[in-house]
Amino acid sequence: MTVAVLPTTALGELLRSMADDEFVIGFSDSEWTGIAPLLEEDVAMSSLAQDELGHAAALYGLLGELIGSDPDSLAYDRQPEAYRHCRLLDHGRGDWAMTIARRYLYDTADAVRLEALAGGAWVPLADLVAKLIREERYHRMHAGAWLERLARDDGEARTRLLLALRELQPDAATVFTPLPDEVALVDGGILAAPMPELERRWRAAIGPVFAELDLPTPPAARQMQRGRLDHGEAFRWLWSEFTSVRRSEPGGTW
Amino acid sequence: MASAPELEAWEVFRQEKDGDPMRHGGSVMAPDAELATHYARELFGRRQESVRLWVVRRRDIVDLADPDLLQPPLDRSYKKPGGYLMRDKLAAARERSGESKPKARSSGGARSR
Questions:
Q1: In a designed cystine with A46, which of A33, A233, A239, B16 is the match (CB 3.0 to 4.6 A)?
Q2: Which pTM value belongs to this model?
Q3: Taken in order A152, A154, A158, A162, is the CA torsion positive or negative?
Q4: What is the ipTM of this complex?
């Protein structure tokens, strides 16, 4: 199946939201390099972070072809308010429990989103998504293994996990913030179902895990309609970090 | 507060391509088999340098380093093939059968299975 008329605006919003999600969580988690709980985990988390930056580069590449821009410019040359990552990724790095909770919530939601894009009508994205799904499988295994270990601990680890979930969960469902004109993506066969339906699928997927681990499930998102807007202080700091080299010599070649 | 889980050593063997023998890659520290597998994957497979990993708990390995068994003191040279002068006999046999000398095996080791 191919798309008769490409819904360029909606597709651009979709690609930008996905790329920014991957870019921000990748950069955020790369902050663990050198200070993760043990050497092996340091390598693992750094490698996961690199994977996400690779995914972001591929998605920015598609977006760049669509709107006539280049991936570096899309990644680094925007002001903070122009990024469209979800609020779930708008919190500071926090402690290890915070990082694991965020990874688990995001990776499970991302998996549902990717499934809804697999086999879609716009071939360049469907092809990329097929590859992303294979890589993200390991990410979920890693986050799931850690979530379980923190949750089953009967001391500080579980306490910290619960605190992290309390902070993150009101924003967890913002991965599924409805996109501008997303109906065009659904009608065009690019996205299998609208975001509210994907959110239901995600809740159905994580429900049994949270019940098994006796963890509270995420509430409805606060301010869902602005779920990818109004980024806070934590992101402004991260933005100033990841753009610092680029801004030090605009237009420079590295 | 619950005590942190005990870390232990896991040995990692890796296969570079199908048919290659499993070679020792190194070791990782992990509290259990699941995380050991994740760390083995990150340390010995994240750059697509492996097609298979074996992750073995170090204390499950049967260790044999007894010199009485492995390096006995008496002369063992009679157990080595170097004591036999085969080269001339082999050359003569080849001469008779008309076969040429087999080529040296390509590097990369023998097939394991």
A1: A33
A2: 0.85
A3: positive
A4: 0.77
